[in-house]
């Protein structure tokens, strides 16, 4: 997406919202739309039952490599590559709107549709950069997720692929700015001020042991080696990706809270979320903590150490 295209989208947005030259109203509406899409992304990350589909391309024996994408594919040996590929694929489904969480957006034919697409793409790029700091950080896994989703062309669940159309790109740099206010910079500032986020996503490395080679199971005896079949690898990758996905959903809940706070304090926005909904979100935090502990134990049981 070019800056010219983004400018056109924002002009459409202002006209549709009947904001005119009212900058505070513009910023308020934009904050509300960002908050809404963050909530949908959290809902998408917590969806169950689709993980095997996200893993479908990531289980390929050989992948195009991010340094030489046109060369002969190379055999994938790291469990971490497949885990990150699965997680990033899940996020890209959200960017495309291939999710029950974004169903209403896909049926929207109004002038704000393209801007919502842009916001979702920005959220997914932010998710990607968080993965780069997380357990199993894998540039190959990230690249192959973008690559494989692009190869699906417009044959996805909703026959509309923003990755294939290059409306949403890896490392998209365009930003939404108004009078010194920047969505990207606000997000970066928030991440800098919350060191606990980085600590949380790095802790998962202890649980996942992402560096383990595919085809080898941990053994008790020195030098001993066991082999595993594709079904075991799939089960482990899907389970680990699911656990990390739920942990990332919790991180994005914190990001959404900051968006809400930033919008209501000095940025002219008031959150459309009621106090009761916010309290329910806090309750979800406690549920996630309990679930995360349980999932950690489950990973041990599935031989990921």
List the helices and strands and how they pair.
Layout: H1 3-16, H2 23-45, H3 51-55, E1 62-63, E2 74-75, H4 79-96, H5 103-106, H6 113-132, H7 139-151, E3 177-178, E4 181-182, H8 183-193, H9 195-208, H10 230-264, H11 275-301
Antiparallel strand pairs: 1-2, 3-4
Biased composition (Basic and acidic residues): 259-268
Biased composition (Acidic residues): 280-293
Biased composition (Polar residues): 296-305
Task: Give a structural overview.
It is a single chain. By secondary structure, the protein is mainly alpha-helical. The protein has one domain. Helix content is 60%, strand content 3%. The protein has 11 helices and 4 strands. The chain has helices at residues 3-16, 23-45, 51-55, 79-96, 103-106, 113-132, 139-151, 183-193, 195-208, 230-264, 275-301; strands at residues 62-63, 74-75, 177-178, 181-182. A two-stranded antiparallel ribbon has the order 1-2. Strands 3-4 form a two-stranded antiparallel sheet. Helix 4 crosses helix 7 (139-151). The model is unreliable at 217-228 and 266-305 (pLDDT under 50).
